[in-house]
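hey team, just a heads up i'm posting the complex here instead of the shared drive bc the drive is being weird again. everything in one block, sequence lines first with there labels, then the predicted structure for the whole assembly after. its two chains so it's a bit long, scroll down
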Amino acid sequence: MASTQLAALRLQPLQASAGVPLSQCRKHVYTGVYMPGQKAYNAPLAVHQILRLASLQSPPQQLKEGSKSLLGSRSPSSHRQPRIRATASDAEPAAPSNLIGVHWLTWAGGLSEEECRKAIDGSAKLGYDLVEVPLGDPDAVNVPLTRRMLQEANMAATASLGLLPHADVSSDDSEIAAAGEKLLEEAVKVAAGIGATIVTGITYSALHKYPSGPTVAGRRNSVVALKRIAARAADSGIEIGLEVVNRYESNLINTAAEAMELLSEIDHPGVMVHLDSYHMNIEENSAAEAVQTCGDKLRYVHIGESHRGYLGTGSVDFPALFAALAAARYRGPITFESFSSRVVNPQLSNTLCIWRNLWEDSEDLAQHAKAFIDEKWNP
Amino acid sequence: MASTQLAALRLQPLQASAGVPLSQCRKHVYTGVYMPGQKAYNAPLAVHQILRLASLQSPPQQLKEGSKSLLGSRSPSSHRQPRIRATASDAEPAAPSNLIGVHWLTWAGGLSEEECRKAIDGSAKLGYDLVEVPLGDPDAVNVPLTRRMLQEANMAATASLGLLPHADVSSDDSEIAAAGEKLLEEAVKVAAGIGATIVTGITYSALHKYPSGPTVAGRRNSVVALKRIAARAADSGIEIGLEVVNRYESNLINTAAEAMELLSEIDHPGVMVHLDSYHMNIEENSAAEAVQTCGDKLRYVHIGESHRGYLGTGSVDFPALFAALAAARYRGPITFESFSSRVVNPQLSNTLCIWRNLWEDSEDLAQHAKAFIDEKWNP
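-- predicted structure starts here --
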């Protein structure tokens, strides 16, 4: 039986046992990944979405465990054929399965029609399952166009942003904190519109080299705002990620342990931790320790080299990271991220201090990364 | 024959063959390391200084080669007994020998008398050969006091700073560039006053997360200013280092290759490259490649962990770095650098984004680092 058929058959019992209304499931399945004019929709992602919704509504433990085998699809080669592995009801334990993604900025600095085509079709052509859309300026996204293109290419999407110094939920200035919450809210709306399932990044503070450490009042503002945003996002089937970044990009969360602490204060099941190999290489004792610290709260992973260029050409210990993810039975997306002054988003490139060319050819870079991940990720 | 006696005997022939006037040699030997009330001065450092002066004045190749065995002293344990190894005139090739240093900020955030005592005596007690004095604000240094304390403790000194956004030789605003040159000049004066032999750090731009990339005019200003400063510094027997730092601390030099390029434009023998394992872990393909790129222009090395805490607890591959330094027959100082919010310099800590405690006890940290370097550095 084809994997997509298998998944389709399982949708109804899954949503029923998860206690998620079918109407809500369908909404997400179809807005997110239904492909008009094609015979299949992205079944693994549909299942992923139902299970995520279920998780947000506190499903029975049995389902939660079963869901681990269904949180994505991995293309073992550049040929994109979504796969569904065994479920919890099968006799054998489920084999891991992950969506493999690529960051938009690998392809394009902006979100014009031409850039959408480049990023989405380029990613699809190389066998990626998802593309991470930058939402630093949510108004810049042409929602219907982006959604249509994602659907046509059978690509899943996630979205990411870093808040801004003047729109920062971790500010102790209530106006700036409110502006940060508004920006997050807009990002969630746009993410839902394009069919993304995750909004992650520096959602808890500004993407910014802070001039001083965090304040108690600012931290409280961040916690309160994220709790509210997480509740609203869950209504749209969207999870909020806390990306752990290095000290130059935030003063609030630089380690997995710090993320877990904030997460426990936020106390909402729709918030999760997002680790990134580039940042871990700077801040963590080891990637293994960071992965272990997060446990099942780790639900998004960025794969980036130490200098943000070609994978395998820097100092990140990828075998150790992949071994840690395998040991943790990590099932979430694994998204490649890289930056070079070759592809420039005027806002993001300067904020991220991209001063030199680490690569010239987006396609060669992304193809290399896909092959690298396929080769190393053997859980 | 005791090593100090051996070195003393060699001072005169060395200075003669290097073509350095004896008066100038003596000035540096005695202002830098002479210890009234003690029977010996720091002979290896004295020789180091003569040879450096010689090098600035283009010595014969023969002397340059011979000098490699004399550029410092390494204490093999916490017992501080300077050692002179074989010279070029000996039958066997010289064994490497390096001064092992520690950054002031390991001990204290400021430069008061109490803080001087803590930093200098603390370093000496643990067997370090030199201490790196922060010169971000040269006026804050009590020159006679610091010099006296260094002499009393038989400690060599180097000095470091990062220029400031409003005093930045790489600015294309000529007033800001001139203010940067003035700050460097003051730093060199203070360094000479306390007996330091090196002024290094971000001497070529501001220590700053730049809002955009470098400009052609700014780069030119930096080159011109450094050429002038290097000439003035050489008159005081001081070398200028270009510390290669990560993208968040400068937009001009993030890799060894970029440093070598700027160095060739400056074109003065008194300017050298300073590599740092913390920064290399972010920016370089590998420490080995970086060390190789610099060749004999590498004359200062910072040893720091990936998160700037305890050595060996992060992701820096120290065995590979030390192997590369040994292969390059590196003879310059090796200085441990670490930062924690436990020891705070209000200016530097925020600029370096030190948001968390990576350690509590300066002495334990520095002792651990000394033992770590002694164990790993076996060239």
